Amino acid sequence: MGAQGKPSNSVNPMQRVKVYRLNDDGKWDDRGTGHVTVDYLERSEDLGLFVTDEEDNETLLAHRIRSDEIYRRQEDTIISWRDPEYSTELALSFQEATGCSYIWDNICNVQRNMHFNSLSDLEIGPRPAVETLEASGTSQAHDEPYHSVNSELRELPAVELSTLPLILKTVMESDVADQMRVTELIVHSPNFFTKLMDLFRICEDLEDLDGLHTIFKIVRGIFLLNSPHIFEKIFGDEIIMDIIGSLEYDPEVRHVQHHRGFLKEHVVFKEAIPIKDPSVLSKIHETYRVNYIKDVILPRVLDDATISSLNSIVHANNAIVVSSLKDDNTFIQELFARMRSSTISAESKKNLVLFLHEFCNLSKSLQLAQQMRLFRDLVSEGIFDILTEVFRSQDKRLILTGTDILILFLNQDPNLLRMYVTRQEGNALLGLLVKGMITDFGENMHCQFLEILRSLLDSYTLSGSQRDTIIEIFYEKHLNQLIEVIVLSCPPKGVDHKVAQSLCFGEKDKNQGVIKPEILSNILELLCFCVHHHPYRIKCNFLFNNVIEKVLFLTRRREKYLVVAAIRFVRTIISRHDEQLLLHIVKSNLLKPIVDAFVANGNRYNLLNSAVLELFEYIRKENLKTLIRYLVDTFWSQLVEFNNLPSLLALKVKYDQVSLSLSLP
């Protein structure tokens, strides 16, 4: 509901603020410390913000609240705005976040009243509020606390066709304290919603659009009261479809919406496994309706506080559903028994996997300890065996769902998947993950495989035998598979890329010949990851299998970002400062493809140019003498035409210094 009422003039730490004003130099001047209230401006019916000095009670600020969207809430304790009357930026810094929320709610409420007052003058007729206030002696309103016309509300108007405008006015034209009173009356009225929905059906039968539009506004206003007790009534099975029906008649939308028809005819509730508990089914249906109203019917109407409350309902319902299902041992056992069955259809198995994914995803609503227990129970039931079979499927959506489930497990506890992969029966899953990374599914699914593999191979979170086992399996069985994809996707030197594909691939491997560049980029990213995390393994593998040379085949690709990625891969290796690898680079002349690509790029200033220059600059700054001498001795005749570039000029100077130091006795 927000704040509980209007601030009084009494000293309250919750309302203590500092007033700041932006000066001409762009700096905030401290104008003093005081206490803020919302009250009527002197000799005016307009409401404003008043800040009174806490020491001498002088007025530090008197600002008329405007209907314009000029106010901003920053972090939890600051409200700022640009005052159009004085063309200056002002800010209030609150001592406590609750005070900031309190005043912010008051500002929003005043703006909403201003908005609906202007609407009511057009739709309902002129308001008698001013006359009422004046007759009751509120001409001295600046000396009295702010109250609206509903402050003395004892009961709701009778729910009748003739009183719909009055009900709308009661719901919408009230301050924060009055909203609480309206909410209380609605909650404790046993038949308010029943009668209102009866009127809705009557208006719909009579095609009374004015009445339907008014009922829409009433229901919308009731949603904005943001009361959990009201939401409990609204989302009950008895009236929810009528509530949704009333929201079909938005006066700001030209055509009537057909939400009920969509929910009844197009929304089908699928039970992969029959759910026998009616309370669980009720929560599932309620959750769908809450999301439908929040995301489809009223997304442009609901404020942040109401959306947060509706999300809380969804979160709580999800927790109840998952808790009930996880505690039902027969349900979990039946689910996995069906997934292992060889007699069920492919469509049924797909629905079961989709349900399993939804079940795991909803478990995020549980407390952390309960989530851990659930995921361990699922592992005990054999979920990774099920997912291994999923990755053997040809169904792209099913494989994508499988990766989503694995990522949920990795986010919860990576060791569950790592322990499985280290076992004999888990080796196949690791191989399928590598295969998935280099397979073109037509979507960006290879990125998810990359994320999973990086988590499995992360040496910073692995320990002991588990780390050694996973890394050994990957390097012995799967790394060469990734390198082979790079080699086969690159044209031989001097051969056009398209011609190379027809030469290198027969009919059997035709589909492999068109590996997506994004897949190659992800392979390079994984290789750079391995260089950082497994330097010894990488060193041995790279030296024995000429991996660096094979990766540099990518400099022949026409996609410049792949050329850049290959250069950055070499940069990553050099950053290890491993003398054996540096000597291998020199002996095998491995920087030649990079220099050739740089020279071919000419004077174009692009990512390729920057990547090569950054590599040269790194070699110079780190004083890698082996590479400095190799670069200049071997390639200076090609690079000399670029010696106007500071990086190359500095490299040549460094080379001369190194040569001089070596020649000295």
TrEMBL record:
Keywords: Nucleus
All residue ranges annotated as the PP4R3 EVH1-like domain in the record: 15-114
InterPro entries to which the protein is assigned, alphabetical: ARM-type_fold (IPR016024), EVH1_PP4R3 (IPR055236), P4R3-like_central_dom (IPR006887), PH-like_dom_sf (IPR011993), PP4R3-like (IPR051137)
This protein's record includes keyword Repeat: no
Main location: nucleus
GO cellular component annotations of the record: nucleoplasm; protein phosphatase 4 complex
Localisation per UniProt entry: Nucleus
Keyword Acetylation on entry: no
Domain Serine/threonine-protein phosphatase 4 regulatory subunit 3-like central: 169-657
GO molecular function annotations of the record: protein phosphatase activator activity
Pfam families tied to this protein: EVH1_PP4R3, PP4R3
PANTHER family per the UniProt record, alphabetical: ATP SYNTHASE GAMMA-RELATED, SERINE_THREONINE-PROTEIN PHOSPHATASE 4 REGULATORY SUBUNIT 3
Protein name stated in the entry: Uncharacterized protein
Source species: Aquilegia coerulea
